[in-house]
Amino acid sequence: MADGATLLGLVQGRRVLVCAGAGGVGKTTVAAALALGAARQGKKVLCLTIDPAKRLADSLGLAGMRGDAHSVAPDRLRALGIPEGAGLTVAMLDTKRTFDDIVARHAPSTAVRDRILQNRFYQYVSTSLAGTQSYMAMEKVLAVLGDPTHDLVVLDTPPTSDALDFLDAPERLIEALDSPAMRWLVDAFEPRRKLGLGSLARGVALVLRGVGRLTGRGFLEHMAEFVTELNDLFGGFKERAREVSRAFRGKDFAYVIVSTPVPGALDEAALFLERLSASGLHGDALVLNRLHAVHEGAVSLDDARAAARRHGLGDDIAPALLEALSDESTQGAFDVRALERFEARVRGSAGNGALSRIELPLLGDDPHDLADLAVLSKILV
Ligand SMILES: Nc1ncnc2c1ncn2[C@@H]1O[C@H](COP(=O)(O)OP(=O)(O)OP(=O)(O)O)[C@@H](O)[C@H]1O
Ligand SMILES: [Mg+2]
Could you give the CA distance from residue 200 to residue 226 in angstroms, rounded to a whole number? Predict the structure, then answer.
């Protein structure tokens, strides 16, 4: 793995940077910082983000909005050293609205479109079915790629229980909607056939096992209507999912794996890299986020007292400072060991030789405004 590299080459050479990784490792933060860093390189960047922490959303101007893109004001950009002509637009992914757009695109008539959009079972599929959020994020990227307003898209990925879910999302969504039970239901609702309610209920039970538990009156009817309408839509929808899946395997796309230096997150990062190489792809960069510093050399009590005074604190805090310093070094040593194990695992895997590694320090507070992101972006790009 190449150390001390930056993501400049990816920023300059690719059109889409996908930030993937385990839950809570900093994908959203890294995506936003990376977008800012790319803008500083003169790019017109769109950052597609997913549920940023509230303070970060506020400072990006996303408070209370979904789906709509928000361009960071030029004067704020200039203040961060972003050149004239470059731009940073941030949009929060709206899974349901993206799905609605697909339905509208593929529905054979406005009547069918409206029936599907108003269907209660559709409300569930379009918001809560496993993989929907990932798929819609991918779909949205493809939709915005044709837009010349942006020359680079940075994609944050949804919090999944497993980073691997992301790449498989199109196939999994199609599978869920095209499962034998679903097909069976569609057949059952063909008007030519008359099936008893008993076999119908069995079919529904099968489907429910696949898609999760739902309750509510009239649900059966909603579901029946949905699967029947879906039949008309399905051909186009399936073809589009294939297209989305293919696009994400294209040369314009780069995969930035984000991880913290803890074993669980690194295991997931390694699995993700393996999954990429199984599809003939490779990870382009590994961002190690929230690394603890290892403090070399002894710090005396006098040094700690002097440091406390410099920060307007009392001498009595010095022992606690020393302890915190030592704790951080211990954590830092754990990080180093976890990383060594990770590197031993991924070395040798096809394509990982080119994986550049960027380290981001654990900041004292949650990064939540553009200035905090700028600190991280300078390390990234
Ligand atoms: N380098 C850092 N130093 C300190 N805090 C950080 C750093 N990077 C991220 N954080 C904080 O860690 C938390 C998780 O970060 P973030 O929301 O970016 O992760 P995520 O991978 O997008 O999570 P999810 O999987 O839930 O979407 C946030 O509170 C964020 O502010
Ligand atoms: Mg996130």
Answer: 15
Q: What is the pLDDT of residues 153-201, one digit of tens each?
A: 999 998 876 777 788 888 888 888 777 776 666 566 554 444 444 555 5
- Taking the CA of residue 24 as reference, the ligand 1 atom at the shortest distance is 23
Residue with CA closest to ligand 1 atom 29: 366
Instruction: Report the pLDDT value the prediction gives residue 174, as an integer from 0 to 100.
Output: 83
How many Å apart are CA 44 and CA 250, to the nearest integer? 21
Mutational pocket test of ligand 1: of 18, 25, 29, the residue with most ligand atoms within 8 Å of the beta carbon: 29
Q: Indicate the top mutation candidate among 366, 368, 369 to test ligand 1's pocket, ranked by most ligand atoms within 8 A of CB.
A: 366
Q: Which ligand is nearest to the CA of 23?
A: 1
Distance 280 CA to ligand 2 centre (A): 26
Instruction: Pick the more confident residue, 165 or 256.
Output: 256
Summarize the confidence of residues 204-211 as an average pLDDT. Answer: 57
Single-letter amino acid code for the residue at 190: E
Return the ligand number nearest the Cα of 20: 1
Q: What is the pLDDT of residue 8?
A: 96
**Ligand 1 atom nearest to 56, measured from its CA:** 31
**Predicted model pTM:** 0.88
CB of residue 261 inside a 6 A radius of ligand 1: no
Copy the structure tokens of residue 348.
């040798």
Q: Is the distance from CB of 90 to CB of 32 less than 8 angstroms?
A: yes
Query: In ligand 1, which atom is closest to the CA atom of 25?
Result: 21
Atom of ligand 1 nearest to the CA of 368: 31
The tokens describing 281, both together, are 């792809």
Q: Which amino acid is at 298?
A: A
